[in-house]
Design goal:
The longest helix is centred in the C-terminal third of the chain and has 22 residues, at 269-290. This protein is globular. With 397 residues, the protein is an alpha+beta fold. Helix content is 34%, strand content 24%. The strands form five sheets. It has an eight-stranded mixed sheet. The chain has a three-stranded antiparallel sheet with strand order 1-3-2. It has a three-stranded antiparallel sheet with strand order 8-10-9. It has helices spanning 19-26, 55-73, 98-104, 120-139, 153-158, 161-164, 179-188, 216-222, 269-290, 305-317, 346-350, 370-381; strands at 4-9, 33-38, 44-49, 83-86, 108-112, 115-118, 143-144, 150-152, 171-172, 209-211, 226-227, 233-242, 257-267, 294-298, 321-328, 333-342, 353-354, 362-369. The chain binds adenosine monophosphate and zinc ion (ZN). The site of zinc ion has 7 residues, from strand 18.
Length: 397
C-alpha cells in the first residue's frame, strides 16, 4: 500500500524517557495513521499515513498529534527509576528474533492483528512457566479461582477504568432480541475486504459487557461490598486478558488477546507489601534457575493521554509498580514479562471491600504474561533444547 509521510516539529520536545510512551499513544490519534515516530532528539515527529491527505487534513492531524504531545510532555518530570534486581548480563546463547523461527515452524499462526494460535513448543513452554508460577502460588497457599473472560461495564466503571485506559478497551455485544434483526443478519452478514462485518450498528444490543483487561479485578468485584472475615485473602487465577494496542500490536510481544497468571493479596497494607516482596524474592530464585536475563525496575501503567502524567507520577512516587523486564537481545531492548503491583486501598475504597475494623482493604498482585514469558525465553535461548538451562529438562522436548 502506498504510504505518505508527514514530518513536523513537536510543540514540546519529548524527553528521551517519554519517547516510547508518546509514540505508543500517537497510534490512537487517527485511523489514517499507520505509524508514528518521534525522533531520538524528541523534537521531530513523523506520521506515516495511509493516504495522501489535503492541506486541511494534514493540519488537523498535526493539531491532534500536538495535543497528545502537549498533554503528555508539558510539566512531566523524569521519574526516578528504582532498580530492585539487575541480571541483564546473565550469559545467554541466542540473539535472533524468535518471531521468524516461530512463524517458519508453524508455531504461531496469526488469526488477526494481535491474536495468535500457539503450537506445541510454545504451549509446552507456557505450561512449564505456569507450573513454576503455580509453585509460587502454592508457597503462599493461594486459593485457586476461575474467572470469566467477560466483565460487566458496570464493574469497570466503578474502578474508573474508562478514564484510565479507554484506548485499550474491547467491547462485547450480541444481536438484539429481535426476530427481524436476527433474520436480516443471518441472511446478509458478510465480511468486507478488511474483515469487518457489514452489519448496521443498531442490530447490536447496547454494550453491557467487555472482554476483561485483567485477572485480579474479578476477585475484587467478587469481594465487593463485604467485610473480609479473616481480614486477608491470598488467591491465584489464570485468565484471558484483552488490551487493544492498535498499531503497536506486534508478534507475541504485544497482543490484543493474551493470558496472565496472577497471585493476588488482599489485606492490611503491611500484609500486601510484605507478600509482594516475598513473591519477588522467590521469583528471583526461579528466574535464576530458568537462566533468564532480566531486571526488576519501577514502572507505570500505560494510562491514556489525559490521565497519563498525573497517574504515572503517582505510581512512581509511591512505588506501586515494578516490572520484570526480560532482555530481548535481538533488538537490544527489554520486555515486561511480569509485574509486582500494589494498589494501596484503591479497590478497597471504590468497591467497599473492608477489613474487620471497617477500614478499606489494600490489594496487590503479582502478574505474569504467559506468551511474553515464552517469547522472551526463546529470544534468549533459541530453539535448540540442548542450549537450554537444566531446569527445562522436564519440558520434555
Ligand atoms: P500489567 O498488569 O500491565 O503489569 O500486565 C502484566 C503482564 O501482562 C505484563 O508484564 C506482560 O507480561 C503481560 N501483558 C500486558 N499487556 C500485554 C500485551 N498487550 N500483550 C502481551 N502481554 C501483555
Ligand atoms: Zn492484577
Amino acid at each position: 500500500m502506498p504510504e505518505f509521510t508527514y514530518e513536523f516539529t513537536a510543540s514540546e520536545v519529548v524527553p528521551e524517557f517519554l519517547v516510547g510512551e508518546v509514540q505508543s499513544k500517537l497510534a490512537y490519534v487517527d485511523e489514517d495513521i499507520n505509524k508514528a515516530t518521534v525522533s531520538p532528539t524528541g523534537d521531530r515527529i513523523t506520521l506515516h499515513l495511509r493516504l495522501s491527505p489535503d492541506k486541511q487534513r494534514l493540519a488537523e492531524l498535526e493539531e491532534k498529534t500536538q495535543r497528545v504531545v502537549l498533554s503528555m510532555v508539558k510539566g512531566a518530570y523524569k521519574p526516578k527509576v528504582q532498580v530492585l534486581e539487575d541480571h541483564l548480563d546473565r550469559p545467554i546463547p541466542y540473539n535472533l528474533d524468535p518471531h521468524i523461527e516461530l512463524a517458519a515452524r508453524g508455531e504461531i499462526s496469526q488469526e488477526t492483528q494481535g491474536v495468535f494460535a500457539l503450537g506445541p513448543l510454545v504451549s509446552r513452554l507456557i505450561n512449564y512457566f505456569e507450573r513454576r508460577f503455580l509453585e509460587l502460588a502454592d508457597s503462599f497457599e493461594a486459593a485457586p479461582y476461575r474467572f470469566p473472560t467477560l466483565i460487566p461495564a458496570r464493574y469497570l466503571e466503578r474502578v474508573k477504568y474508562f478514564q484510565a485506559f479507554p484506548h485499550s478497551l474491547t467491547f462485547a455485544t450480541h444481536l438484539r432480541e429481535d426476530l427481524d434483526a436476527i433474520d436480516h443478519f443471518a441472511q446478509n452478514a458478510a465480511c468486507q475486504h478488511d474483515g469487518a462485518l457489514t452489519v448496521p450498528l443498531d442490530t447490536f444490543s447496547p454494550i453491557q459487557t467487555l472482554l476483561s483487561p485483567a485477572v485480579c479485578y474479578h476477585l475484587y468485584f467478587a469481594l465487593a461490598d463485604q467485610s473480609l472475615p479473616q481480614g486477608k485473602v491470598v488467591a491465584t487465577a489464570v485468565g484471558n486478558c484483552f488490551r487493544y494496542e492498535s498499531i503497536n500490536l506486534s508478534s507475541l510481544e504485544r497482543l490484543w488477546n493474551f493470558t496472565m497468571r496472577e497471585v493476588i493479596f488482599i489485606g492490611e497494607k503491611e500484609f500486601v507489601l510484605e507478600n509482594r516482596e516475598i513473591a519477588r524474592q522467590r521469583m528471583s530464585g526461579v528466574f535464576e534457575e530458568i537462566g533468564l536475563a532480566y531486571r526488576v525496575e519501577s514502572a507505570n501503567d500505560p494510562f491514556f493521554i489525559g490521565e497519563f502524567r498525573k497517574q504515572a507520577a503517582f505510581q512512581s512516587a509511591f512505588q506501586l509498580k515494578f516490572e520484570i523486564r526480560a532482555r530481548l537481545p535481538f533488538k537490544d531492548s527489554t520486555l515486561a514479562v511480569g509485574s509486582y503491583n500494589y494498589h494501596q486501598d484503591f479497590f478497597g475504597r471504590h468497591l467497599n471491600m473492608t477489613l474487620p475494623d471497617g477500614s478499606p482493604a489494600h490489594t496487590g498482585c503479582v502478574a505474569f504474561g504467559l506468551e511474553r514469558m515464552a517469547y522472551a525465553f526463546l529470544a534468549q535461548y533459541g530453539f535448540d533444547p540442548r542450549d537450554w538451562p537444566a531446569a527445562f529438562k522436564e519440558v520434555g522436548l
